[in-house]
Amino acid sequence: MLVGYFSAKEKEFTAIMDAAAAALTARGARVVGRIVQRRGVSGGGAKKMGLPYSSRTLLSYGKVREVAAVCEQEAADAVVFVSTLTDRQQHALTRMLGRPAVSLGALAVAMRGGESAFDS
């Protein structure tokens, strides 16, 4: 499952998601779905655009539930976030989603080193 978190200022978020999906596919992954959380699209959200919805999960609670439901439905093995996750976010999301949650950047580094990012 591929998840992106983007501000309303990011107009090319679809192209970024496409590039991330292509990078994962090139590494042998099968992308079973894509979910995007946009920040600052509404008037109230625009004031807080630089902040994640939740410092613990990066996403809103509703979006986390949506990701979990789609992961369950599609039998996703892992959730790859386009955004960088803190260790705290990675651990919280892994627990909440019931499968490894990693950032695309961390996954790329781990795969270059020959280890699996999903072993942690």
Observed structural traits:
single chain, 120 residues, alpha/beta, 4-stranded parallel β-sheet, 5 helices, globular, disordered C terminus
Compact summary:
By secondary structure, the protein is α/β, with parallel strands linked by helices. 43% of the residues lie in helices and 15% in strands. β3, α4 (87-97) and β4 (101-103) form a beta-alpha-beta unit.
The total strand number stands at: 4
- The strands making up the biggest β-sheet line up spatially as 2-1-3-4
Q: Kindly provide the radius of gyration, computed on alpha-carbon positions and rounded to a whole number of angstroms.
A: 14 Å
- Low-confidence blocks of residues: 115-120
The topology string of helices and strands comes to EHEHHEHEH
Choose one word for the global shape. globular
Largest sheet: 4 strands, parallel
Average pLDDT level: 84
Structure in words:
- The protein has 120 residues and is an alpha/beta fold.
- It has five helices and four strands.
- The protein has helices at 13-26, 43-46, 61-74, 87-97, 104-112; strands at 2-7, 34-39, 79-81, 101-103.
- A four-stranded parallel beta sheet has the order 2-1-3-4, sandwiched between helices.
- Helix 1 links the parallel strand 1 (2-7) and strand 2 (34-39).
